[in-house]
Amino acid sequence: MKQKGLTGELIGEIFGTFVLILLGDGVVANVGLAPRLAGPAYNWNTITIGWAFAVIVAVYISGGVSGAHLNPAVTIALAAKRGFPWGKVGPYIVAQFIGAFLGAAAVFFVYRDGLVAAGYPNVWSTGPGSVFGNTFWGGTGEASTGSYSMLTAGIAEFFGTMMLLWGVLASGDERNLGLKNNMGPFLVGFTVLAIGLSLGGPSGYSINPARDLGPRIFGAIVGTKGLFDGMYWLIVPVLIPAIAGAIGAFAYDAFVTPFLPEKK
Predict the structure, then answer these.
(1) E strands of 35-153, at which residues?
(2) Could you give the angle at which helices 72-81 and 150-171 cross, rounded to 10 degrees?
(3) Which residues form the domain of 237?
(4) Does 264 fall in a domain?
(5) Domain count, the chain
(6) Which end of the chain, N or C, is less packed with Cβ atoms under 10 Å?
C-alpha cells in the first residue's frame, strides 16, 4: 500500500464506506420498496448477496488507499492484535461514520420517490422497526417467524462479528491457506454472505457500528420514525460489534495462529 499520509487514508475510508452503504442499503431499499417487480420476486438471498458484493466492491475500491477497514470493529481489532496505530483509530472511525452517513444520503436520493410513497420505512439500519421486521416480500404478518429478544440479537451480533474478523484475518494470513492474486476481498465478501445467510436472522447482522449508526442518524433526519427508541440501537448493533471484533482477533490468534506452519 502506498503511503500518502493520514488524510489520504481517511478519504479512502470515507469513500469505501460510502460505497458499502450505497450498495448495501441500496439493496435493502430495492427489496423493501420492490420498485420493478412484485414483492415475491425478492427474498432474503437478495439482501445477503447484495451486501456481500457491496463489501467486495468497497474493499477493492479503497483497499490500496486505507486498507479498507470500513468498520470500527475491524479497526479496533487490528489495533488490538495487528499493530494498527491506536492514534489512527479515532480518525478512522470518524471517517467510517461520515462515509456511512453520506452513503445513506445517496440511497435516499436514488429511492426518494419510493421512500416518500411508503412513508419513509427503515431501510437504513437493523433491529426493531427495520423492513426486516415483517415478511415484506409477499408473505403476511402471520407468515413471519416472529421477533427475537435483545439478548438473542446481541448473541447473534457477537458471533457474527467474530466470524467477520476470522474471515478478514484469514484473508490476509500468508501462513494460512492464503489468497493469491488479490482475491482477499472475495473471502471477506463471502464471509459476510455466510453470516447473513446463517446468523443474520435475529438482529439483521449489523456487524459494523458505522454501517448501522451512520445511516440510522441520516434516517432520523429525513423522517423515519422509531430509529432511536429504547437502547437497542446502541447496544446490539454498535457496542457489541465493537467489542466482539477484538475478541474475534484474540480468538484467531489463540486457536489458529499457533498451529499454522512457519512462513518459509
Answers:
(1) none
(2) 60
(3) 5-259
(4) no
(5) 1
(6) C
